[in-house]
């Protein structure tokens, strides 16, 4: 279903390099016509070795990226059901990555309009491939078109 005019859809994903102790995170922002309007990739050293935690970090980085680019109405899509469910909860989240979820919610609540949506891995292919590529690239990049 095509988003309404003015809505920005941001797909995010994360990848882990357990040997190097790094995560790669990518966010891809598209307008209501599906046109690319911004993207972010980053790698970070981390002690976390669990993919769900990496995706929770990715959700926070995506929310922050969206805020910095001045988006106001966003739909954030990711393939981690656990992270999406944590962000949807009305009350605070209490699990092993609670601080990340709660901090992400705080950023999302600063937007006039936001939604969080779970998508199947196949619908998140571009972000998945780019998150793995970010680890190979080894640099931070972000920008708005």
From TrEMBL:
Gene3D superfamilies: Ribonuclease H-like superfamily/Ribonuclease H. It holds the Pfam family RVT_3. Transmembrane segments: none annotated. GO terms for molecular function: nucleic acid binding; RNA-DNA hybrid ribonuclease activity. Residues 24-134 form the RNase H type-1 domain. It comes from the Eukaryota. Signal peptide: none annotated. This is RNase H type-1 domain-containing protein. It comes from Carpinus fangiana.
